[in-house]
Design a protein that fits this description.
253 residues, binds adenosine-5'-triphosphate, alpha/beta, single chain, 6-stranded mixed β-sheet
Length: 253
């Protein structure tokens, strides 16, 4: 059963180029909350600090917060891209990740080759790979571009292909950054249909977003981050207020 559990989770990024002592001092004086020195005396940005939460099967969680609050860092940590510097993280379930469209894609290979590579990576047999290829090709609507190396794709084309691949097989846990829902109108309609199928499959969705419309439409729970810390965690109504007050909600995020 899909679950995510975090206890005292912290993430910090070393800023190697800021090791000069004078600069360090200046930075520390200005922003001592998030830019610190660690035990090895390196300057680090504290991206996430002491997060504890559980996400269970059936929950659709929005990560909200202002720029730099830590939403993408948390998504990437859940995806296993970043290693916590402190605390524990347990993620049970197969992850589908829509955080960076180019991630996991070989830009010298065509869209079709990338789909097949993804199938191989997932340990699929020939028949399953053929089905994945058919589904992802149809959903992405890339037509002849499917046989062009992906380095020649526009940003929107990359999103289409990444979305098609990540959602062709329903992952147990879908991690998504909001701009995956920012395609053209035709893609959006298809993407919403597909997401609806996916999220009603009672697995876990975690989406980082500034769009309170997306939160109210898709999510059952909101975790609000501020400067790398959780400042609110509850149902959509609890954190954002009633549905008729979207302006207030927009300000909060
Ligand atoms: N690779 C990195 N190296 C150094 N600092 C980083 C790195 N990634 C993120 N940070 C820092 O971590 C903090 C959180 O950033 P993050 O991108 O997670 O915020 P966010 O809430 O997703 O912001 P936005 O809404 O602007 O996308 C910021 O202070 C950022 O500067």
């Amino acid at each position: 059963m899909a679950t995510i559990s975090a206890r005292g989770l912290s993430i910090a990024f070393p800023l190697y180029h800021l090791a000069a002592r004078s600069l360090k001092k200046r930075l520390l004086a200005k922003a001592a909350i998030r830019v610190k020195t660690d035990e090895s005396n390196r300057v680090v940005v504290s991206a996430l600090h002491d997060l504890s939460f559980e996400i269970r099967r059936g929950e659709r969680v929005a990560l909200v917060g202002t720029n730099g609050a830590g939403k993408t860092t948390l998504l990437r940590t859940l995806a296993g891209i970043y290693e916590p510097v402190a605390g524990e993280l347990m993620v049970e379930g197969e992850i589908g990740s829509l955080i960076d469209p180019a991630a996991g894609m070989d830009s010298d290979s065509t869209g079709r080759e990338n789909i097949r590579l993804r199938g191989l990576y997932r340990g699929m047999n020939d028949e399953e790979i053929a089905a994945l290829e058919q589904d992802a090709a149809a959903f992405s609507g890339l037509g002849e571009f499917l046989d062009v190396p992906t380095r020649g794709y526009s940003a929107g084309m990359q999103v289409r292909l990444a979305f098609a691949m990540a959602t062709a097989i329903t992952p147990q846990i879908l991690l998504m950054d909001e701009w995956f829902l920012a395609g053209d109108a035709d893609f959006m309609t298809k993407a919403e249909e597909r997401l609806a199928r996916l999220v009603t499959g009672a697995d876990i969705l975690v989406i980082a977003t500034h769009d309170m419309g997306v939160v109210r439409r898709w999510c059952t729970r909101v975790i609000k981050l501020e400067a790398g810390r959780i400042v609110a965690d509850g149902t959509v109504e609890e954190v954002l207020g009633p549905a008729h007050a979207p302006e207030a909600a927009e300000e909060q995020a």
